[in-house]
Structure formats: structure tokens, C-alpha cells
Amino acid sequence: MTTTEEHINPKLVSILESISDPEIPVLSIMDMGVVRSAVIENDIVKIEITPTYSGCPAMDVIGDDIKRAMQKAGYKAEVDLILHPAWTTDWITPRGRKALEDYGIAAPLDAEADKSVLLEGKQLVKCPQCGSKNTKMVSQFGSTACKAQFQCEDCQEPFDYFKCLK
Amino acid sequence: MKNKNLYNYILGIADNSLILGQRLGELCGHGPSLETDIACTNMSLDLLGQVRSYYQYAAKIAGDGRTEDDIAMLRKEREYFNVLLVEQPNTDFGYTMARQFLFDVYHFLMLTELEKSTDLNLSAIAKKSIKEVSYHKRFSSDWIKRLGDGTEESHSRIQTAINDLWTYTDELFHQTEADKAMVAEGVGVDVTKLKDAYYEEVNAVLEEATLSVPESKYFQKGGKQGIHTEHMGYLLADLQYMQRTYPNMEW
């Protein structure tokens, strides 16, 4: 896991934390782990973000949101999209995982758990509504590129699972 | 253009994903079920996202003021270098999954090698894409097995699709001039070396799906040189319609 803290100017943290992922509004872009660096050079804020998925349409919006928030705080900002190192679900912070669960999206487990579902192995994904592990995958692809569709066999509620990406 | 080989090499990779992404996108709202509809459009979105990274890089190399959109939307049929496999029509869900599976196995193997490229841009795109493509491959392999080992009807349909599309698989392993030049520089992937692993993996899935491996040794080629099947013109008409009708439009 790569930590980014040392590349983020402490003055900018609270501004960045106020910007949320447009598709999962409970999650800030900091908790999502997409902000890779944020520095101030000659009064210009330079920010690097990385996409969760290549085709994620939220990235353009996030870039615009950052520029707007920085402008409000009195900074001029430049936003760069970087691809390397590639984003992984490990970069979602513990606070972000909790926010996902509270919002009704099961947080990513590990690659083995994702595979286990497909191979009809042990059931590991917990229903965010009732907490039961008696769940089944409906489809590997869900409402956004980063999610899979699940259903709880106990409370019958359908829910999204944030799939593991490593 | 100084780096013509690199430019053409990138287009060769990216055009496959653009055209397959367009085909999958045609299923938006037309998939056989809600889940498969969403899955196909998700895969389309992944591919188009990857394509943007490639074309942005290609536009930088071209350095003639063209943007990623110009490269995607404003070339003529003969200037697209995708393999014939990816432009084949959706026909039925069996064809859609057979085409996807036959491409995904190749795509995954190719990206695994491209990760090692000495070109850091290409290596970064490959590292990002391979995570997404592993989901695509899992999805399409799964459907090959479900359809093959399903009912008599699904078995016969997916076997027909595999038999028909088989003729386009060999082209995946043909080298272009740009390929050869880029392999020599350590930038490109030597696709000829992927062939054995490809057929081994494809055959294993077909066997598990109770399908027979086609024996035909007759293969089609031409896409990599810009000579396409009759389906390509219709696909491009659809893809390019807005840009041709309202030049330079943005949304």
C-alpha cells in the first residue's frame, strides 16, 4: 500500500475532504484514495488524481469540482490525471469503508473473496442492511464500473458490492 | 511524423478496444436481460476509458493539433487498424459472448506483456487496463461455459458462434510493420509468442463448456492493414454520425 499523506500539503487537506465522489456522495475523494498528491508551487495548487476505473465518468467531474473548491479557497488549481501507480481498493480509507457500509454499499473484501463467490465457495460478502453473510452475487457488473450486484438471501434486499481491484 | 511506428502501434492496440467498445455499446438497452445489458455496457465503458488513454498519448505523438476525439471519430475506414474479430456484429448473445471471449483471452495475454514495455506510458495504461480486463475475461468465460453446458439450444448456438468467429482468431497473432519495429525497441509486444498460450487457454474453456474446438485451418485477415469486413462501414457510420453531421460538436 502506498501512502500519499507526505505528498499532500496539510493546508489543502480540509478543502479536498469537502469534495465528494459524484457517484457515491458519502465518500470524499480523499477517503476514496484518488488524490495522489497536492502541492502548492508559486501560488498555484497542483493536484494529481488517478481514476478508479479507466472509463470512470466521475473523473472529469472530480477534476472540475477540485478546481472550483480551490478557487473558492483563493487558489488557482491545475489538475492532472495520472495512471501509475494504478488505483487499488486498498487505498479506500477505513473511514471511507465505514461510510460505504453506512450508505448501503458493501465494502471491498479481497480478491480471494471475489473469486470465492464465483466458484460458489464460502460466502463472505456481508449484507449492509441486515449483516447476514448469506448473500449471493446477481451480476459481476453493477450500476457503476466499480460495483457488482448482490442480493441478501435472508432479508432479500438487493445491494451493491464495491468490487475488489488490486 | 517522427514517431510514425509508435503512433501506428498505439492505434493498432487502441482501435481493437474502440471498435469492440462500440459493438458492446450497441447493446445498451437491448441486452437479453438487465444484468447482461449492464455488464456489456460496463465492459464497453472500461474499453472506451482505456482507448482515451491510448489516443491521448497518440495525439501527443502526432503533435499536429489533432485531439483524441479527432483520432477516434474522424478517420476513414481504411485508417482503422483493428482486427476483423472485434467488428463482427452482435447477431445473438452467443455471438456477442464468443467474440468477447475470443478477444478477452488475447487481450489479457497481450496486456500482461505490455506491462513490461520500456515505454512508461504504455506500461502504465496496461497495468491499469489489465485489472479491468480480468473481470471481462471472467465474465465471458463464464458465459461460454453456461451456454455450452446449458440447453441443447444454447449449446448449438454458442458452438455455431465459436465456429463462425474462429476464422478471425489467427489474425490476432499477425505482426504489422509497426509491431516489428516496436518489438525491436522493447516497446511493443511480440504477438506471435502469445499464440500457443492463447489456444491452450481457449481450448481448455471450450472443453469445459462441452464444446468442440473448430478444426478449420482457414483464417481471415486484413483488419490490421485497414482492409475490413462489410460490417465495418455500418459500424463507423453509427460511431461517427454526430461528428460528421455537426463537425467539432462537444457535449
UniProtKB/TrEMBL annotation, chain A:
UniProt signal peptide: none
Residue span, PaaD zinc beta ribbon domain: 114-163
Domain of life: Bacteria
Matching InterPro entries: Fe-S_Maturation_MIP18, FSCA_dom_sf, MIP18-like, PaaD-like, Zn_ribbon_PaaD
SUPFAM superfamilies (UniProt xref): Fe-S cluster assembly (FSCA) domain-like
Stretches assigned to the MIP18 family-like domain: 14-78
NCBIfam families: PA_CoA_Oxy4 (TIGR02159)
Protein name per UniProt: 1,2-phenylacetyl-CoA epoxidase subunit PaaD
Organism ancestry: Bacteria, Pseudomonadati, Bacteroidota, Flavobacteriia, Flavobacteriales
Primary gene name: paaD
